[in-house]
């Protein structure tokens, strides 16, 4: 595991970090780790709504949809006169 040092951290930021860590029942170090993990995770490519929809239904066993057959021929083209 890597270690980093943060220098010149504003005293107010340190104070707010301490309060935030206490609210979450963590040490300041653990809170900083969690914040960094969350910050990096946000940089991942956002999932499309199709993938999120699929994952949501896959978690409950999926959904089978009946696709109606296509009915003959071509449709008329819309005219914008």
From TrEMBL:
InterPro entries: Arc_rbn_hlx_hlx (IPR013321), FitA-like_RHH (IPR053853), Ribbon_hlx_hlx (IPR010985)
Record-annotated Antitoxin FitA-like ribbon-helix-helix domain positions: 2-40
Signal peptide: none
GO biological process: regulation of DNA-templated transcription
Lineage per the UniProt record: Bacteria, Bacillati, Actinomycetota, Actinomycetes, Propionibacteriales
SUPFAM superfamilies: Ribbon-helix-helix
Coiled-coil residues: none
Protein name according to UniProt: Plasmid stability protein
